[in-house]
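Q: I'm building a small set of examples for a reading group on sequence design. Run inverse folding on the following structure and report the sequence directly after it, with nothing in between.
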């Protein structure tokens, strides 16, 4: 990843918040009472963890840079350079709009796998290949989504490549569900350990 600051650390174009909420809505049904949640790529303010803090026992968010503000007593935000993930600890790991920014996402997803409890779930979202020209148009021409975010994209994944990536990180083929959302422009994956 080439970027230096986290998403929402600075003011973002107006459509960014809406797109973030679309991703969050996909996660809510998977957040169970008293679960331990790790949000990889949580953004500067840990927005997802803030929204679910009353429903979970503990949450940890990791990103390039994070706010020092306390968002809830059961939530901890950590900068990625200080992050040491416990093994077999989390019930749910989320990774929303992150893997497309990584040269080698296997490193991150293998750490996510290791951090999950047995039968824990990883949920990730990522734009599909058909989203690339649309995202570039929205960012570079209309300027209604983050130019920085789109410039930082390294790869776009179709369902098959994403499934292969998850399997290579330890997730079992039959424990992986992958669907499209937002008119096929995004992929939503759930992978069970």
């Amino acid at each position: 990843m080439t970027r230096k600051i986290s998403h929402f650390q600075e003011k973002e174009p107006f459509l960014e918040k809406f797109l973030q909420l679309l991703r969050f809505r996909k996660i809510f049904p998977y957040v169970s009472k008293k679960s331990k949640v790790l949000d990889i790529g949580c953004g500067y303010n840990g927005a997802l963890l803030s929204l679910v803090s009353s429903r979970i026992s503990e949450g940890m968010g990791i990103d390039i840079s994070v706010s020092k503000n306390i968002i809830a007593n059961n939530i901890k935000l950590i900068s990625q350079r200080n992050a040491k993930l416990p093994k077999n600890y989390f019930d749910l790991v989320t990774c929303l709009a992150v893997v497309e920014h990584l040269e080698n996402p296997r490193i991150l997803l293998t750490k996510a796998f290791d951090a999950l409890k047995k039968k824990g779930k990883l949920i990730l979202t990522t734009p599909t290949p058909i989203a690339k020209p649309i995202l570039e148009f929205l960012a570079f021409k209309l300027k209604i989504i983050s130019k920085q975010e789109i410039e930082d994209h390294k790869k776009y994944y179709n369902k098959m490549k994403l499934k292969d990536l998850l399997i290579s990180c330890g997730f079992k083929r039959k424990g992986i569900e992958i669907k499209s959302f937002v008119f096929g422009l995004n992929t939503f994956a759930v992978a069970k350990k």
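The chain has a mean pLDDT of 93.
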